[in-house]
Amino acid sequence: ADTATITVTVTGENDAPVLEEQSLDADEDGEAVSLDLAALASDVDVTDTLTFALAAMPARGLVTLADGVIAFDPNGDFEDLDAGETDTVVAEVTVSDGTETITRTVSFTVTGQHDASGVVRIGSSEADFLSGTDGNDRLDSGAGDDDLSGGAGADGLIGRQGNDTLDGGDGDDNIAAGEGDDFVFGGGGDDAIGGGAGSDNIDAGEGNDTIGGGFGDDTIIAGAGDDLVAGGAGKDFIAAGSGDDVVSGSFGTDTLFGGAGNDDLGGGFGMDTLSAGLGDDSVGGGNGDDLINGGAGNDFLAGGGRNDRINGGVGDDTINGGNGSDELIGGSGSDLFVFNAPDPSQTDTIFDFEVGSDQILLIGVENVPGSGLEGRLEALEMTHTMYGVGADAVESVVLSYEGQEIVIVGVAAEDLTLEDISFL
User: Fold this and answer.
1) Contact call for residues 236 and 219 (beta carbons, < 8 A)
2) Region Disordered: start and end of each range (predicted)?
């Protein structure tokens, strides 16, 4: 009998991310609750990077989303609940793999608690001054440019309309600034602060605070403590301060400073400037042409999807420019430059590669006919070039990484060896 061979060619297609609807429980006066959506989401296309964004906010309460972790704080908005009574509010989150986007809901069920002694003061439509006691107070400004001072205790301060000044004082406070260009002071304690609409100035003070800038060009000083900060929409300035902080610029052209501590900074959407500061930090530029400075410490710095400029600073840093034509500077220390997404239309440039100290890691390089590492090195097709103009031009080498060019400035091709380049 005759034998025939049938060849079947399977063409891959993008599959959408997968994430189930989620729910969380919280207490009226309890601490913020959080859920790692990034750990729960999946995508069968294992090379896809998932990004998360808030699509709709709940009717009340404070929600932040940074690096795939969604956090919810009742924020003093559920004080009307009796002990044991519940209310459920819903936020919507989008998950994108760069090609397809899905929307999922996260519901938050808040249970009422017995309220400790304190006062309830409600302002008028005029400019009011409302002060609390040493108990757990609720101050509601109403309309007008108001001044609210919570004092000691776990207070709930609501700014509503107007350019308000809200000072939580000592205690674990919940502060919602509302509409207007507000000044907010968290004071001592683990506070939950929402800027709302308007260009707000927020100084969270000491404690492990949860801060959301909301809409507008906000200035946020997180202060001491391990803080969770999301700038929201607008051109925000965020200084994380001391502590191991998680900071997301969210939407807009943002400026982020990590300060002391091992921080996690994410630029989000927009052309952001991110300075990690002291500590072993993790920085992701996100979408946009970002400027990233590692500062001191052994940092992980990733550019994201556009044309980024990354400077590792002091320390043994890991630098990954991501998609786009990136400019990379390792700084002092033994740095690792990682390339894992070749794009023939892009060119990355390394400006200060130190032979024998720094290293380049190339992921997915196929070796030319031959064998072993020598074949992979040959596949890079190293060529000599001069970088710069006229008398300022310096000898450099160009690597062909699956069609994408990597220019190493100030290094001759013959100086590079297998000790300087590794493959995965």
Assistant:
1) yes
2) 130-181
Distance, in Å, from the CA atom of 175 to the CA atom of 73, rounded to the nearest integer, reads 10
Q: Is residue 348 part of a domain?
A: no
Question: What tokens were used for 343?
Answer: 């794009």
- Is the pTM higher than 0.90? The answer reads no
Residue 117's pLDDT is what?
Answer: 65
Strand order in the sheet with 86-96: 22-27, 101-111, 86-96, 51-56
Residues 257 and 239: beta-carbon distance below 8 Å:
yes
In degrees and rounded to multiples of 5, residue 374 shows phi and psi of -60, -35
Q: What is the CATH number of the domain that holds 102?
A: 2.60.40.10
> Domain boundary residue among 111, 137, 156?
111
Give CA–CA dist 318/280, Å, rounded.
11
Residue 302, pLDDT score: 92
37 within some domain: yes
Residue listed under structure tokens 């890691």:
361
Give me the pLDDT at residue 410, please: 94
pLDDT band with cut points at 50, 70 and 90 for residue 166: very high
In this predicted structure, the answer to whether residue 367 has a pLDDT above a threshold of 70 is no
Based on the structure, what is the number of domains in the chain?
Answer: 2
Per the structure, the complete domain to which residue 86 belongs is given by: 22-111
Residue 233 in any domain: the answer is no
Domain boundary among 59, 93, 111: 111
| Residues 216, 233: Cα–Cα separation, whole Å | 6
- Please, which residues bridge with residue 203 across strands? 185, 221
